[in-house]
Amino acid sequence: MIDHIGIAVSDLARSRGFYDMALAPLGIAAVMEVTEEMTGGHGAHLGYGRADKPFFWIGSGRPAGPGTHVAFAASDRAAVDAFHAAALAAGGRDNGAPGLRPEYHPGYYGAFVLDPDGNNIEAVHHGAAP
């Protein structure tokens, strides 16, 4: 089990705006901030999670690059749909509309967007096969 993951972003403020909107339908919010001063000049970081437990971090201080894929669990298909709509409204680019992905497994319902740095961000609900 992974405790937390972090990705580099090129513009922390822009990415915060994106992730604040995109992750809200999944019940995920910014719960911790670490400043550049706190890291001794190694970038600023923002932790997203639930109940004051960050598990997804974005941060400056390293070169950002596309290619990272992060999937967030959604409580149901409606949350996947809401994530996709919110992420697009926040400036994300569509990388796979909400829908069943039976090639992954029966009942896999996901949606994919590219964040401002080109990372592939997904919301997925593992439901019963239709």
Automatic annotation (TrEMBL):
Keywords, comma-separated and alphabetical: Dioxygenase, Oxidoreductase
GO molecular function: dioxygenase activity
CDD domains linked: VOC_like (cd07262)
Database matches in InterPro entries: Glyas_Bleomycin-R_OHBP_Dase (IPR029068), Glyas_Fos-R_dOase_dom (IPR004360), VOC_core (IPR037523)
Entry-linked PROSITE patterns: VOC (PS51819)
Domain VOC positions: 1-126
Matching Pfam families: Glyoxalase
UniProt xrefs under PANTHER family: GLYOXALASE FAMILY PROTEIN (AFU_ORTHOLOGUE AFUA_5G14830)
Protein name, as recorded: Catechol 2,3-dioxygenase
Organism: Paracoccus aminovorans
